[in-house]
Amino acid sequence: MSIDPKEFRRILGHFPTGVTVITAAPDGKPVGLTIGSFTSVSLEPPLVGFLPGKNSASWPEIERHGSFCVNILSIEQPELVWRFAKEGDDRFDGVAWRPAGSGAPILEGVHAWIDCDVHDVIEAGDHWFVLGRVRELDAGDGESTPILFHKGKLGGFQA
């Protein structure tokens, strides 16, 4: 049975996902990309995972650096979702950040962040499954709301 890629994407769009920006700073130059396919993987050891596309120009730079920071975006940051989703060298123009322990950018105002070392990279169809071993993490003031992606739109979460 053949699955139409457009239909596959449409149906999976019914599953809400959080939105992250994965960052690194190889050679001191910040790079980043928007990722919706992020998950916790293991408590012991502490592992997280995300899936960059094989055609990503940013992922090879992050992999070369060997570490990355997962920036979990807040509802107040929809412009960062689209800024880091497009290819280009100007993604960090005007974006405030500070370095995590790995040197990867922690974007100002994020809901939470997780600094990681690349633990393993596994081929997964037209993507890579990246496992990161957590170095440090924080949720800031805990008062912000995470941004969610659902059916092609951004929104928030109501309990």
Describe the protein.
By secondary structure, the protein is mainly β. It has one domain (17-151): Pnp Oxidase, Chain A (Roll). It contains three helices and twelve strands; from the N terminus they run H-E-E-E-E-E-H-E-H-E-E-E-E-E-E. The protein has a seven-stranded antiparallel β-sheet with strand order 3-2-6-9-10-5-4, with helices on both faces. A three-stranded antiparallel β-sheet has the order 1-11-12, with no helix packed on it. Strand 11 and strand 12 form a beta hairpin. The longest helix is centred in the N-terminal third of the chain and has 8 residues, at 5-12. The protein is globular and about 45 Å long.
Strand order of the biggest β-sheet: 3-2-6-9-10-5-4
Helix content: 10-25%
- Given helix and strand content, the structural type is mainly beta
Q: What is the CATH third-level topology name? A: Pnp Oxidase, Chain A
Cα-atom Rg, whole angstroms? 15 Å
Element-level helix/strand string? HEEEEEHEHEEEEEE
> What oligomeric state best describes the polypeptide chains here?
single chain
DSSP E strands, number: 12
Provide mean pLDDT, rounded: 94
**How many helical elements?**
3
Distance between the termini: 39 Å
Strand content: 35-45%
Extract low-pLDDT stretches. Answer: none
